[in-house]
Each structure stands twice: as structure tokens, then as C-alpha cells.
């Protein structure tokens, strides 16, 4: 039995919710390994929708263990709100089905404020990143700056004031520079104490827990947030998130060694979308782009922000396949393309008159590339609800096969509607 890592192959919003739900039903443990509550997905189970942003998808299924790893930054108040919201849907989240790494970093109100202050300032200077203003980046900065407050710190109120004071030495200097009032130690202490009793029952030495689960033969599913092209190292920097989103982070962000990651499933949309600022070579600012957005219901689960839409970029996904060591992809939203007479696939770029086969790392070069397209005939018949290759139009199959050739990875699952059963299974990642 394999342990499976699920990552997005593009800029996020690839439709991970349905695929992760399908996999989590068959997993024993579901681990979230990076990011914060700045991204999310919607699970639909027996007609009921569950919107998750911090909690791993395993929490909505009985008998599953959900784990938030050390690579995640946690807003404790947002987490409590999410748990309470699920309780209203008769989903009980307690210490039996949720464990949180005791060394995970906490997001505080000062992180959210700093995030917003920077975005507002950047809006005026034209350097806006397009963050969700939820404090993710500033929290990761404190983590690598070795001044973060972590889950385990909530258990020791005697040593907590000194740690908060050290944190505020940094943040109050920033606030003074931004013309903002300083924050008192007591303000942050009160904020943390108010939520400590709700968070501490979930505290766990996660690397040890996962090692035990692995040794007993449990199926472990690792789910990330955002997409590979938002990775802080490998994405379209600086228009990226603040963490590593690629498959390798599943090991670092959970404490389970990379040798235990058996299958990497790249969730890949049949076209391309992006939220926020940054380069997007295949973006369509025309009727086709509007068609994709409306047909695909392209609005963010967490923020509600409209997504930018464009043709499938095989060069980008090929890059993601290489960086992630992708074993196979789950191709989603094929049905959104139904009825288009012609489809285009980006197979490479032209940069300053030279053809290249990957997106360069330079921000300036990314802004100058133009896509090189290959045109493929579309299909009139519907793909909605197809559950076998025989149910698909011939041109749809040709489109899928061409994508496989261009990205260098096979399609393991093919999604043909938001319904979880409308999926063509080619390879079972847990049994590969």
C-alpha cells in the first residue's frame, strides 16, 4: 500500500477538494503539511457541502485521523471558528480525530494587521502581491526569524510572556516605522490565553505519531494548499505564497521522511486559472476567458475572488511534474471545455525572439514571454458525468492524450463533473 501526496500542478484552485475527498475516504490518516487558512476547498458528501480551509479533509469522515503538520501556520481563532462551524453541520472534531503538531507556528492578530498594512502600501506603489491579508506571510517570517509563538507555548504560561516580549521587540519596531501604535505584551497574551484551552487538547508530537502509523501499515494521505507555481522557491516569485507547496514539503512539513512518500498525484485543471497578481502567459481577456470563468464557476472557496482564466499551459505543468516528481495527474474540469470548437495548448514560449520550453525564474523575463500554441479541435458532445473512456467524445480523448504527451506524466484520474462519482479511474494511487 502506498502513501500518497496530493499537490496542485498549477496556481492552485485545480479542484483538489473532490479528488482529496475521494482519496481520504480510503485513507486512514490525512495530513495537511503547509500553508494556512488562505486557501481551501469544498467537499460535497451526500449532498452536503463542507468548506475547509485549515482542517484536513479527513475530519468530515468517521474513523479517519486528521493531522495538521508542523509546516502549517495556524490562526488559532480561525481554527476554532472552523471547528465550531462544522459542529453546526453535525461533524464532531475532537482529540480523537484531529491532532496538531506541537511545533506548528501560530498566526496572531499582529500578523494579519501587518499583512494588510503592507498590501495597502504596495497598492499605492504598484508592487502589490495580492495576498489574502490573513497573516500567512508575516507568520512564516517570524518562524524563520526564530521568534514565533508555537502551539506548545500555549501550555506554559510562565514562559509565554518572555516569548511574546521578544516577538514584539521586532513587530513594534516595524509598527513604529509604519506609523502604527505599538502593541502591549498583555494584548497578545490575552489573545492567546483566550484560545489556549480550545487548542491544547489537539497537541501532538506529529512526527512520532506518523512514524507509528506508517509502521502499522496505515494509508497516509498528504494534502497541500495552493499550487506548485505558488511555491516560494519554484513559483512565479514574488507573486507566490509564503511556503513551499511542492511535494517535497510533505516530508519536511510533517516529519515523515521522504522515503515514505510513495505516490505524488498532481491535481491539474484542463485549462488554467490564477487568482491575484503575477504573470499568466495564457490568460484570456476575451469571451473565451469569460466563458471558462462562468462555466467553471471560477471563484475562490475562501476569498470569493474571481479567478483569471486561460488555455492549458503544458509548459508550466511539465515544469511542475519535474519539480514534484509527479507519478500521475488527476485531470479536472474537462467538462468545462464542452462545446468549444477549438482548443489551444501552450507548448512553450518565445522570449526576446528565442523559443524556450519552460517559464524562466526572472520576474522581468516572465512578463516578456509569449505563449506558443498548438491548436486542437474541440468537441460538441458533453463529457459531463462520463465514468469510462467509452463515454467520452473522441476529440476529448485526443485532448487528454496530447496533454499526457506534453507534460510527461499519465492521467491517473479524470474528473468529468463536481460529483465525486463522475470520475474515470485509470490508476489507483494507493495501490500503485
Automatic annotation (TrEMBL):
Keywords: Cytoplasm, GTP-binding, Ligase, Magnesium, Metal-binding, Nucleotide-binding, Purine biosynthesis. Pathway: Purine metabolism; AMP biosynthesis via de novo pathway; AMP from IMP: step 1/2. The keyword Nucleotide-binding applies. CDD domains: AdSS. Its cofactor is Mg(2+). One of its GO terms (cellular component) is cytoplasm. Binds 1 Mg(2+) ion per subunit. GO terms for biological process: 'de novo' AMP biosynthetic process; IMP metabolic process. It is found in: Cytoplasm. SMART domains: Adenylsucc_synt. IMP binds at residues 13-16, 38-41, 132, 146, 226, 241, 305. PROSITE patterns: ADENYLOSUCCIN_SYN_1, ADENYLOSUCCIN_SYN_2. Mg(2+) binds at residues 13, 40. It comes from the Bacteria. GO terms for molecular function: adenylosuccinate synthase activity; GTP binding; magnesium ion binding. Its EC number is 6.3.4.4. It holds the Pfam family Adenylsucc_synt. It catalyses: IMP + L-aspartate + GTP = N(6)-(1,2-dicarboxyethyl)-AMP + GDP + phosphate + 2 H(+). GTP binds at residues 12-18, 40-42, 307, 333-335, 415-417. Substrate binds at residues 301-307. The active site is at residues 13, 41, 143. InterPro entries: Adenylosuccin_syn_GTP-bd, Adenylosuccin_syn_Lys_AS, Adenylosuccinate_synth_dom1, Adenylosuccinate_synth_dom2, Adenylosuccinate_synth_dom3, Adenylosuccinate_synthetase, P-loop_NTPase. Belongs to the adenylosuccinate synthetase family. Homodimer. Plays an important role in the de novo pathway of purine nucleotide biosynthesis. Catalyzes the first committed step in the biosynthesis of AMP from IMP. This is Adenylosuccinate synthetase. The gene is purA.
